[in-house]
Amino acid sequence: MPPNLQAYRGSLLHFLADPAFSADAHVYHADGLLIVADGKVQAAGDYASLHATLPPATPVHDYRGKLLMPGFIDTHVHYPQTDMIASPADGLLPWLETYTFPTERQFEDPAHAGQVAEFFLDELLRCGTTTAMVYCTVHPQSVDAFFAASERRGLRMVAGKVLMDRHCPEFLRDTAEGGARDTEALIQRWHKRGRALYAITPRFAPTSTDAQLHLAGELAGAYPDTFIQTHVSENQAECAWVHELFPQARSYIDVYDSVGLLRPRAMYGHCIWLDETDRARMAASGAAAAICPTSNLFLGSGLFDFAAADAAGMALSLATDVGGGSSFSMLQTMNEAYKVARLKGHYLPALRMFYLATLGAARSMQLEGVIGNFAAGAEADFIVLDPAATPLLERRNRAWQDAGASLEELLFALALLGDDRAVAATYAAGQPVYRRAAA
Ligand code: GUN
Ligand code: ZN
Fold first, then answer.
1. Which of 107, 203, 268, 299 to mutate to test the pocket of ligand 1 (most atoms within 8 A of CB)?
2. Amidohydrolase-related domain: which residues (predicted)?
3. What ipTM goes with this model?
4. Where are the alpha helices (DSSP H) in 247-358?
């Protein structure tokens, strides 16, 4: 059977390397064409040269004036916290006690979990996010509800059951053995089923006993192509607590390292209060950082140090961390990342931010070639961004163009001024999964 061919014309941007370390990291075609066959990228390039290669009846969707790029990847987000976004507290630990734990309790009910998962995924797609690394709750049914909703939409999603056997309310507590047993059953049920991928998910070191962390490490060794996700060095009170709970550990990251949780496909949220030894160890292990600027500013946790992370050679990605994060939009996340970098004396170019939200994340997850750019054979998860989505963006963009602006300048305005309104359409595996309502 001939493949299902579709083509999309518009400005086209994707990355082949990290712009911080390579002069020709990005590929841009002002008048580009993306050709999709059976849900995968067949080719991406100049309209003028590629159009001639299409069989005559191929549909060509006209997105001229808009920007086609790979879907955003959010490497750290909590779907059960959707309904408690924007809850005020004077720091991480009181925020967890007051809002997070009572909210997560509701996910014992599969119907509630399913309904929140549907809203959450709709919201991601409205914001142009096609893949996320997602925390569920301690309840296995919260994972089933999430993956079922994501499977219905055909999305490449990574998720896992939270492991938490101490320092939390009784109603959210599992046991070391029970949590490991549930995790293994969920890996067998969901990992690599369709586009689903499983993440072993100890919430963070303070809420797991040594026994639970050891069992999580054993599972990570037994299933080496699963993901791992947890929090590290987010907040100073949290770091002091970890120091008390694990006096034998050299550092917070060492608690995870000593049980085998530092390896490729491990995603560490925050990574603010690390030292040089921690950064070097993360880089050497292949574990990656999920940088969560809206959350870190909202909870007053601290400022991620981009220069130190780059000097150590750490794998980096951007993440919303909703509900600690205050926006689902990766454009708003870039906006805040830029300002966090400025406050640390570092300059973060727009091209680097778009890289971190696409190929940088895919590389951090060892998924290059699967998602994150328009390499031939990659899954066709892509978005259509509208650089004139709002009156202000339209005006700013026109002023830039009249001044002969560079791609960097145009992308910068999109990152600083854009949000969900800048996403005109979202496609997953070549299928339309969101289209902005016509004005
Ligand atoms: N540390 C442990 N749990 C959480 C959480 O749910 N959100 C954030 N931001 N940090 C955490
Ligand atoms: Zn988090």
1. 203
2. 68-433
3. 0.99
4. 252-257, 276-285, 293-298, 306-312, 330-343, 350-356
